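PT: before anyone asks, these are the final sequences, not the draft ones from last week. 602 residues across everything. Please model them as a single complex and drop the result in this thread when it's through.
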Amino acid sequence: MEWIQQLVNGISLGSIYALIALGYTMVYGIIKLINFAHGDVFMIGSFIGFYAIARWELGFFPALLLAMTICAIMGVLIERIAYKRLRNATRIAALITAIGVSLLIEYTTIFFRGAQPAAYPEVFKNKSLDIFGVQVSSTSILILSVAVVLMILLQFIVHKTKIGKAMRAVSHDADAARLMGINVDNTISATFAIGSALAGAAGVIFGIYYTKIDPLMGVIPGVKAFIAAVLGGIGIIPGAMVGGMLLGVVESLVSALGFSLWRDAAAFVILILILIFRPSGIFGKNAREKV
Amino acid sequence: MKKSKVFWGYAVIALVIYAVVQLLITTGVIDIYYKNMLITMCINIMLAVSLHIVIGVTGQFSIGHAGFLAVGAYISAIITTKLMLPFPLAILLGAVAAAIAGLIVGIPTLRLKGDYLAIATLGFAEIIRIIFLNTDYVGGAAGMQVKYLSNWTYAFVGVVLTILVISNFTNSRHGRACISIREDEVAADAMGINTTYYKVVAFVIGSFFAGLAGAIFAHNFYIIQPTTFGFLKSFDILIYVVLGGLGSLSGSVIAAIFLTVVSAYLANFPETRMIIYSLVLIIVMLYRPTGLMGTKEITDLFKFGKKGGTK
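LR: through. Structure below.
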């Protein structure tokens, strides 16, 4: 039973990774850029949720929506100001800019509110439910259900709406999409908005799950979400979900075996093994590089 | 003939700088604060130049340089503090250990390209840091006490050695092979250059000198902790190389000197320092994606019209 409990913990943690990983995967799929600042959008989302609940006394769902909206705007701003000019620049220049944006968001936050952590308010009474002899906290169920609802919503947007179709077209071939009359700039902005909104939502539920947030909290989950995206095959949306869940479960199991200090190392080992043996990820197809 | 004249010219300049600073230290004109800043400057130059050979010359985007710094720092600290062996031996062994770590990391990861390589090296640096964090022999998270053994002589000799080896390497046949990989890896491969071999060689040399810097770094402070060698340290080193110019050795040196001075004056405002750093990074990348110096060296600026054509 102990193992099933760890599995449940792992899935809750994994669903947070999955939500952040979706943003990475979508952005990478469309402009081939590792958006290092994504983890910091997640952090900002977490803080907006904190202020909304603790200071302005909003409920959980209004706070979640507010965080998602502000993060979406922030994502679009980051793209328009920093990344748009670099569409045709070298990969190294784009990656360094992303690192710069990430540091800028982190330290501007520290500048305005200090580096000390904040304690997240309790929104729900945390009850333990007994399901077939397994103790599952109600917070875990909440996190999982929010994540699943958002993922279904994302699948709907990507597969059924016009903007989703445009996103798929641009990620496939931006020039051909432009010739077909798709506004590529707006589509990229929409991708950033959706990805950042998911990161914002992940920030709020992360705060509720871990009850402690600080301005540098985005770094490690950000890198891990990227690992999740690579694990599932970067650019593939279901891959990010599965990768996130898998990573969460592996981490919980490593902790359960008594190696909690090695948890982060386990994630990086998985990354390196995947990159060496199956660089296109679990769901990816091997594409040969053209000269 | 001409080349050796230039070499002796630089040797004289280096000796003069060393002698003047040493004189100022012994006469007490440079106090302990500025002396410390000079040593930090030397360490940063070594780090910048050792990353320059990986990113600037070979074009492999590695952002886990702090990991090799950590290996050099910890191994040398173990040798002096636990095994009570002399400091020069510790420097050498620290650097060799870092080079071996570079070899172990480099062979699998250098098959990757661009972003993937960056993330993989970042991951390896974190794994190295987590290993030190979980090793009780070196004090775990609390850190390790180290004797204060660094001085200006060690730091300066380290810098001269680093620059000498790396600039000679860059100008050699091997260095030109590395540059060709930077410019176009597929074309270099097609011309019969063993790209993997040269990438690993450049990586190992870079790690070796990062380890050298690490040994001097560890013995310049009384304590080393795993938190010192995190992402931020790697990004700091990256900023020197990027700001100076991707592919310019003298650019890396100048950026390292400049940013050490700036951060020393902003030491009381760490947030402001990082905000300025990140803004500089973004603006330089947006308006001058090859860094301030590009691939030019400082000496190119003094060669007025000696060479015809564009270079």
